[in-house]
Specification:
This protein has helices at 18-32, 71-74, 114-130, 158-170, 187-200, 231-239, 256-260, 268-275, 279-314, 318-356, 360-453, 455-460, and strands at residues 36-43, 54-59, 64-69, 86-96, 101-111, 148-153, 174-179, 212-217, 244-248, 263-264, 465-467, 485-490, 493-498. With 526 residues, it is an alpha/beta fold. The strands form three sheets. It has a five-stranded mixed β-barrel. It has a five-stranded parallel β-sheet with strand order 7-6-8-9-10, sandwiched between helices. Helix 6 links the parallel strand 8 and strand 9. Helix 4 packs parallel to helix 8 and helix 5 packs parallel to helix 6.
């Protein structure tokens, strides 16, 4: 007889669950590849996820591996991944049991060599140039003589000392330093924030707004200067309303901020020389111009003086100018007597000619003619007066008729006017009575308000007014002395009193100590 067990197996292999097997694989992979250095090309990068983590892949020509950068490490990366960028990643390999996949968790990330950085730099340069950030039309001229210079650089190191030294030698003025990191994580954001901060200053604030900015850093490798190739720094420099001088690295070092700045200086010292002129040269130039101006003024005065003298010599003398008018005056004076005699003789002859034609019969005939004309005018005036009188009489007759018929019309119009006047009188009396009632009610309300605010109502609530000998109110106890006569006014009358020996000094009633309890003693501070 044979017995068969239900758990009979065809082999003696250990049985795992899916979770156990996935966990074992995960531990094995993580132990074997705890820290690896991996080189590959970034693929499928779309920026950080909403959670802050970054998910993408690394690939080469034959294989691909998923990669993830957790939020805490992503914010510390010196270089952010970009699509198609060849990088070197350092991290650990692990598996994702939920989908049976393996991936690398990246701790640090850097470009794969200077060639990759140059390719990335060139691609970024083309992108920003296409947006017009490097156009010459956007460049602003530097002020000839700025009053305030803003410097964005590290507060330590030789760069800031060189700039301050050079400005002090050439033209001492107000320099404001905005200290920033110029290398490492967050340095690009710090430089951009400094540029924006200088532009946000008000010209009337406590901190003066610079007239020109200098963004400076000493020399270094491409990686050391990479912060000044950040897109945020380039955009801040291009958007700056204050003229900006870029002085990053040495003369052979070029960064993207050099293209966006209004002027590029080969060194920080060269930036200081561009920002301010030489004071001694300006003073010498001003002295030279002043001397030239004084010489030109002297020469101009000499030329004008010589020209005035030449004009004075060309003008005729007073005697020459008055010679002809004097001669004419003398000739006119000499001929005046003869002219009067000739004029008198001509007038006499004309009078004699006219008198020879006058006769008495001509005068009588002219008088008779004038008499006839006067008689004719008198006759015409009499006829005209008669017509005017007839017309006036006719008008008076018509007026008399119209006046006799007028009382009937006038009486009707007067009755209508009287009725309208009575109606207006009634309306006026009604309006006046209503207005008087409103004003009376307003006066009564104001009176009640004054009565409620009167100080005498305060006396009715139990208060009193103290007056001195002159009847003036006393506002405090200090205004009274001992033996002073006072009057206390209540709501129902006046009471006279005399102050005691204490005078106007206010006194408090002495407190009695509690019976049976000793007086409290002051505690020790120690």
């Amino acid at each position: 007889m044979s017995f068969f067990a239900d758990n009979d197996s065809s082999s003696n292999l250990t049985e795992y669950s899916v979770s156990e097997l996935s966990g074992s694989i995960k531990r094995t992979v993580e132990q074997a590849f705890d820290q690896v250095r991996l080189r590959g090309e970034v693929s499928g990068y779309r920026g950080p996820h909403s959670s802050g983590h970054a998910y993408f892949s690394l690939k080469d020509e034959r294989a691909r591996i998923d990669a993830v950068i957790w939020k805490g490490n992503f914010s510390k990366l010196r270089f952010k991944p970009e699509e198609g960028m060849e990088v070197i990643a350092i991290g650990r390999v692990t598996t994702f049991p939920g989908s049976s996949k393996y991936q690398i968790v990246i701790d640090t990330l850097e470009p794969a060599g200077a060639g990759a950085l140059m390719a990335l730099l060139e691609e970024r340069r083309r992108k920003l140039a296409a947006e017009g950030l490097f156009d010459a039309a956007r460049k602003k001229p530097l002020p000839f003589l700025p009053m305030v210079v803003g410097v964005v650089t590290s507060p330590t190191g030789a760069v800031i000392r060189d700039i301050l030294h050079r400005i002090a030698d050439r033209f001492p003025l107000h320099v404001i330093v905005w200290p920033v990191k110029v290398q490492g994580e967050g340095s690009g954001e710090a430089v951009a924030a400094a540029i924006d901060g200088f532009n946000a200053l008000s010209s009337e604030g406590l901190v003066p707004r610079p007239d020109v900015l200098i963004v400076a850093r000493g020399g270094g490798s491409l990686e050391d200067l990479w912060s000044f190739n950040d897109e945020i720094v380039v955009r801040a420099a291009s958007a700056s309303a204050i003229p900006l001088i870029s002085a990053v690295g040495h003369e052979t070092d070029w960064t993207l901020i050099d293209h966006a700045a209004d002027r590029r200086a080969p060194t920080p010292t060269g930036a200081a020389e561009m920002a301010v002129p030489v004071k001694a040269e300006l003073e010498a130039r001003i002295a030279s111009l002043a001397a030239r101006l004084a010489g030109a003024a002297m020469r101009q005065m000499d030329n004008r003086r010589q020209g005035l003298r030449a004009l004075a010599r060309a003008l005729p003398s007073i005697d020459q100018l008055l010679a002809l008018p004097r001669r004419r005056f003398d000739e006119a004076g000499a001929g005046l007597g003869r002219g009067l005699q000739m004029n008198t003789l001509n007038k006499r002859r004309s009078f004699e000619r006219v008198g020879a034609h006058l006769r008495s019969d001509m005068l009588l005939a002219r008088l008779a003619e004038r008499g006839r004309r006067v008689a004719e005018h008198m006759q015409r005036a009499e006829r005209l007066l008669e017509r005017r009188l007839d017309q006036a009489h006719a008008r008076l007759s018509a007026l008399d008729v119209s006046l006799r018929a007028a009382p009937a019309r006038f009486s009707g119009a007067a009755e209508r006017r009287r009725e309208r006047l009575d109606m207006l009188v009634r309306r006026g009396e009604s309006a006046l009575s209503g207005d008087f009632a409103r004003r009376r009610a307003l006066v009564l309300a104001q009176g009640r308000m004054l009565e409620s605010l009167s100080w005498r109502n305060v006396l009715k609530r139990g208060y009193a007014v103290v007056r001195d000998e002159t009847g003036a109110p006393v506002s405090g106890a200090a205004g009274l002395g001992p033996g002073r006569a006072v009057a206390i006014e209540f709501s129902d009358g006046l009471v006279e009193a005399v102050t005691g020996s204490g005078g106007g000094t206010p006194r408090r009633k002495a407190e009695k100590p509690e019976t049976g309890k000793p007086a409290p003693r002051q505690g020790s501070l120690f």
